[in-house]
Amino acid sequence: MGEGLKQLKSYSLPRKYEVPESDTEYIHYGDIHTSSRKYVDKSFRLPNIKSGDFQLLQTGDIVLADASEDYKEIAEPMLMKNIKGRKVVSGLHTIAIRLKCGDPVYYLYLFLSPGFRHYVYKVGTGLKVFGINYDKVQKYFLAVPDEKEQKYIGKILFLTDQLIAANLRQRLNNSLNIENHSKASINE
To answer: How far apart (Å, rounded) are the C-alpha atoms in residues 15 and 48?
Structure first.
């Protein structure tokens, strides 16, 4: 995998470096672990840090959490889907990656795939906190389709995820409506 990737700088800035307002944001491994979303876009809010001379992320970059309290979340990915006009920095316990070529959405799903997840379980290290580094990530071997096919596959997977999320929201709304209706009937 290393042939198609470039490692970007990550900064070891713990939460204590956050400030209330700034034009610079950063993504911390905790932001990746606690989000149900797998991408940062215009609506995704990140913590602010004091502005400085940082290497900034771009749309299409992928940030992996390099540490976790269980093997399940090692190398969990987050795609910078649409961050144009934002200053975003890769923060504490992250591995920031820029693709030399290829479709970022395809690579997001590749990092979520059972094959890659199994690989990071095997090569991750640690006793209480488990981790992985860029060298291990880039050694993952895979056959990659051409970029046109990557875009097609990535789009299908992304749209499928959106459809699943919409159906789950609808089911939740329906069950809440039924519950509220039942409570109203009891009170009558």
So the answer is: 10
Neighbours of 95 (CB within 10 A): 25
Query: What is the distance of C-alpha 97 from the center of its chain?
Result: 11
Please, are residues 81 and 162 in contact by the beta-carbon 8 Å criterion? no
What is residue 6's DSSP assignment? E
19-28: per-residue pLDDT in tens? 989 999 999 9
Count CB-CB contacts under 10 A for residue 47.
Answer: 19
pLDDT in tens, 132-167: 999 999 999 887 888 899 999 999 999 999 899 888
For the sheet with 5-8, list strands across it. 5-8, 94-99, 62-65, 77-80, 39-40
Between strands 87-90 and 24-27, the pairing is parallel
Secondary structure (DSSP) of 125-178: B-SSSEE--HHHHHT-------HHHHHHHHHHHHHHHHHHHHHHHHHHHHHHHH
Using the structure block, give the residue that is written with the tokens 């095997």: 122
Q: Give the pTM.
A: 0.84
- Distance separating alpha carbons of residues 133 and 158, to the nearest angstrom: 27
Class of residue 84 by CB neighbours under 10 A (exposed 0-12, middle 13-18, buried 19+): exposed
